[in-house]
């Protein structure tokens, strides 16, 4: 069910080549759906993932003779995305403002041969249909792992320490230490578990070791190697139900696919320790938005934090924007930006260019970047497959 890639991430032997050819390397139409940066992107050129800065690809692509179209307009039948996907050869999009490639979109996209995720996480593409249509899907594996792992740790701390209500108190001009401290705890001595122990999940475990937790647990269909387990003193739990029943803090670090959609639902939340904290920086649709909001309001969850939403941008009436625990705190939600720090943007922009360059030249791609290739799955990251 879950992506399990820490094993390969730490091995230099995983270099077997896979070849994918553009079938003609000039005159292709490249469509990019990126997020609007506005004045911030004009003032900060390192915001590469924006429509203004275009992943830094325009001069290079045009020098190669390719057409490059960039927009943030992706919603509705008359959108820029829907208009130009019909004859695009290559689609580039990001997890932060994704162009959703549904089976219906695939039917329109007669020329589409390659989808590149500038970042990590290709669940905005119907991967089953990509396999059927022999459309290659690649992403820049590893570009966000440090950024997201750090964000997870920050989320844990802000929830456990009850930071956000304390800061809001100061902004209001108030001062009531007991009102904040009544719901503030330490990470030390807590049982902390991750659903998914791949590249990000494992890095989260590494970063938790210095906090001296009571125990580190993980659930993943593919066990870590004994050496990796020993390095972080983590223990594998056989079922997700057992994991959440044992943990004071749970973090979700798994990709979205058929086996993880709505995994954290009302039934699973009822099995959490009462008053547990939950962090999700993976994909919003892994958690049932209404069940999470109800669990937080009731106190079954003490806090929920993350940056991923079931639809992005999130509608203004999304329950996660305003949900609170019984004491008026416990909400650590922000826009989807954990994996798009300036450092991460430099990595995924460079990785996107490398993927395109390999494709144009018919050269080997990094196997770790390939989700769908040559009409077949190239990874188990999006669920177990034979």
From TrEMBL:
InterPro entries: D-isomer_2_OHA_DH_cat_dom, D-isomer_DH_CS, D-isomer_DH_CS1, D-isomer_DH_NAD-bd, FDH_NAD-dep, NAD(P)-bd_dom_sf
Gene Ontology CC entries for this record: cytosol
Ranges in coiled-coil conformation: none
Alphabetized SUPFAM superfamilies for the sequence: Formate/glycerate dehydrogenase catalytic domain-like (SSF52283), NAD(P)-binding Rossmann-fold domains (SSF51735)
Segments forming domain D-isomer specific 2-hydroxyacid dehydrogenase NAD-binding: 154-325
Pfam families: 2-Hacid_dh, 2-Hacid_dh_C
Keyword annotations of the record: Cytoplasm, NAD, Oxidoreductase
Domain D-isomer specific 2-hydroxyacid dehydrogenase catalytic, first and last residues per copy: 80-368
Gene3D superfamilies: NAD(P)-binding Rossmann-like Domain
Site positions (Important for catalytic activity): 283, 336
Recorded GO MF terms: formate dehydrogenase (NAD+) activity; NAD binding; oxidoreductase activity, acting on the CH-OH group of donors, NAD or NADP as acceptor
Any one GO biological process: formate catabolic process
The enzyme's E.C. designation: 1.17.1.9
PANTHER family referenced in this protein's UniProt entry, alphabetically: FORMATE DEHYDROGENASE 1
Described purpose of this protein according to its UniProt entry: Catalyzes the NAD(+)-dependent oxidation of formate to carbon dioxide. Formate oxidation is the final step in the methanol oxidation pathway in methylotrophic microorganisms. Has a role in the detoxification of exogenous formate in non-methylotrophic organisms.
Family: Belongs to the D-isomer specific 2-hydroxyacid dehydrogenase family. FDH subfamily.
UniProt protein name: Formate dehydrogenase
């Amino acid at each position: 069910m879950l992506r399990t890639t820490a094993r390969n991430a730490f091995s230099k032997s995983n270099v077997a080549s896979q070849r994918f050819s553009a079938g003609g390397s000039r005159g292709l139409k490249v469509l990019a759906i990126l997020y609007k940066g506005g004045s911030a992107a004009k003032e900060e050129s390192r915001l590469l993932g924006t429509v203004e800065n275009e992943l830094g690809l325009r001069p290079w692509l045009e020098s190669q003779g390719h057409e490059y179209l960039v927009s943030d307009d992706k919603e509705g039948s008359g959108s820029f995305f829907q208009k130009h996907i019909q004859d695009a050869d290559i689609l580039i999009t990001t997890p932060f403002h994704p162009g959703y490639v549904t089976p219906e979109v695939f039917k329109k996209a007669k020329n589409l041969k390659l989808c590149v995720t500038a970042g990590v996480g290709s669940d905005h593409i119907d991967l089953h249909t990509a396999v059927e249509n022999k459309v290659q899907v690649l992403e820049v594996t590893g570009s966000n792992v440090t950024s997201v792992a750090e964000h997870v740790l920050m989320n844990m701390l802000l929830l456990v320490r009850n930071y956000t209500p304390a800061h809001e108190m100061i902004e209001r001009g108030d001062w009531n230490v007991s009102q904040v401290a009544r719901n503030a705890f330490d990470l030390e001595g807590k049982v902390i578990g991750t659903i998914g122990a791949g590249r990000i999940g494992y890095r989260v475990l590494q970063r938790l070791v210095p906090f001296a937790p009571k125990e580190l647990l993980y659930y993943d269909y593919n066990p870590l190697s004994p050496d990796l387990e020993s390095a972080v003193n983590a223990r594998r739990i056989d079922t997700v139900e057992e994991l959440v029943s044992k943990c004071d803090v749970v973090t979700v670090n798994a990709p979205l696919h058929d086996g993880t959609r709505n995994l954290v639902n009302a039934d699973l939340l009822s099995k959490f320790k009462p008053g547990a904290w939950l962090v999700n920086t993976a994909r919003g649709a892994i958690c049932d938005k209404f069940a999470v909001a109800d669990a937080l309001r009731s106190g079954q969850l003490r806090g929920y934090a993350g940056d991923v939403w079931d639809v992005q941008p999130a509608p203004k009436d999304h329950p996660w924007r305003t949900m609170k625990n019984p004491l008026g705190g416990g909400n650590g939600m922000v826009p989807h930006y954990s994996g798009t720090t300036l450092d991460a943007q430099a990595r995924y922009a460079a990785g996107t260019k490398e993927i395109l360059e390999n494709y144009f030249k018919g050269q080997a791609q990094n196997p770790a970047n390939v989700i769908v290739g040559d009409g077949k799955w190239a990874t188990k990251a999006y669920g177990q497959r034979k």
